[in-house]
Amino acid sequence: MRKILLISLIAGMSQLPVNAMGKSGVIQRGDYLQRPEVQSFIAELVKNHEFSALELQGILGQAKKSQKIIDLISKPAEGKPWHEYRKIFLGKKRINAGVEFWKENEETLEKAEILYGVPPEIIVAIIGVETFYGTRMGTFRVLDALMTLGFDYPPRAKFFRSELEQFLLLSKEESLEPQKPKGSYAGAMGMGQFIPSSYRNFAIDFDADGKRDIWHNPADGIGSVAHYFHKHGWLPEQPIAKRATVTGDAWKKLDSDKLKPEYSLQEIQKHQVKPSEKITDPGKLSFIELEGKHNKEFWIGHENFYVITRYNHSKKYAMAVFQLSQEIQKKYRNKK
Predict the structure, then answer these.
(1) Is 112 exposed, middle or buried (0-12, 13-18, 19+ CB in 10 A)?
(2) How far apart, in whole angstroms, are the C-alpha atoms of residue 95 and residue 261?
(3) Whole-number pLDDT of residue 302
(4) 301 forms bridges with which residues in the sheet?
(5) Residue 282's pLDDT is what?
(6) Which of 48, 76, 141, 159 has the most CB atoms in a 10 Å sphere around its CB?
(7) Residue 299 region, left (φ>0) first, then alpha (ψ -120 to 50), else beta?
(8) Helix spans in 105-256 (H)
(9) CA atoms of 235 and 302, how far apart (whole Å)
């Protein structure tokens, strides 16, 4: 019966004109609507979420494929060696702007730490890495990004179609016009660059004004990042990472590609890895190897380092956030 219903919906939509009418009443041309996989996607949303087929045609028919989006996602910054990647995020301008952002939002950051246990410097660093403190939130229409990647980027099409579904649900829930929001080439939005599923699940109305506005409201942007970290297991007042030195070749048997901490301190030390600081009650640890300009860098990661990688699944990203947070905190404390 479900199969018959789905076929009927697709067949019905195939009779609708490609020039579909949007909610505004303006006729919109959409080449995506001619594609069977897009028609199937629309039929699924109609069946599962009670969307109107004509409404979805009016929205998705306005999406435009962007080759630039495909080019950008094919060459992410995380592909650079660590010493080049680090330079992107650890410059003086970003550090100084982070100090100013902290000063401007002290009360909100303090409130976020009290409620969620996430220190201000981490929240500030995340927003600093993601959008230079809300000043660079992306120029691509989210609709174009998610349609392009969902239907014209096979390596991650399934993921981005799911995010497109989440975006359409989000638009309905938040009374957004789906053709208007702009974000990154991957469809991430707002100060903290939340993908649609993260927006729906973790964004919060931190100042209780009735809206979850992560674009224009620093309170909601800050609170949402803190809430995200809290939900992903941030451990208050616990370490993130410590430098380490190695001797011999035993360290090469440790897997530095594993993000989740799996080693005991004894295992780390057995492989001739020595932390730069004393580690007490460490729990499980990870071993981190990074490409320095002249030599390799070695670090030991704690659970909180892993939590940062839940925001972006890259040890380079997590290390950039960690190091930026330290620089911002140092300068902020010195200015007080």
Answers:
(1) buried
(2) 29
(3) 96
(4) 241, 286
(5) 72
(6) 141
(7) beta
(8) 106-116, 120-131, 142-152, 157-173, 196-202, 218-231
(9) 10
- Burial (CB count within 10 angstroms: exposed 0-12, middle 13-18, buried 19+), residue 278: exposed
Q: Give alpha helix (H) positions in 15-66.
A: 36-49, 53-60
Q: Which amino acid is at 63?
A: A
Sign of CA dihedral 169, 172, 178, 182: negative
- Is 303 designated active site? no
State which H helix or E strand residue 269 sits in.
Answer: helix 265-270
First-last CA distance in the chain:
68
Main-chain dihedrals φ then ψ at residue 41, nearest 5 degrees: -60, -45
Contact present, 308 and 240 (Cβ < 8 Å) = yes
Handedness of CA 155, 161, 163, 167 (dihedral sign): positive
Instruction: Copy the structure tokens of residue 28.
Output: 């919109």
pLDDT for res 1: 44
Over the stretch 81-122, which tens digit does the pLDDT of each residue have?
A: 999 999 999 999 999 999 999 999 999 999 999 999 999 999
The tokens for 2 are 């479900």
Q: Which of 121, 130, 165, 289 is catalytic?
A: 130
* Element (DSSP H or E) covering residue 68: helix 67-74
**216, two tokens:** 């224009």
Pair of tokens at residue 274: 């020595």
The values of phi and psi at residue 21, to 5°, are -90, 125
Task: Give the Cβ contact number of residue 267 at 10 Å.
Answer: 14
Neighbours of 328 (CB within 10 A): 25
Segments in the chain below pLDDT 70: 1-30, 336
Residue 280, token pair as written in the block: 């007490």
Please say whether the beta carbons of 193 and 184 come within 8 A: yes
- pTM value surpassing 0.70: yes
Q: Do the beta carbons of residue 215 and residue 223 sit within 8 Å?
A: no
Residue 245 makes CB contacts below 8 A (sequence gap 6+) with 273, 274, 276, 298
How far is 53 from 31, CA to CA, in rounded Å? 16
Contact residues for 101 (Cβ-Cβ < 8 A; gap 6+): 124, 127, 128, 133
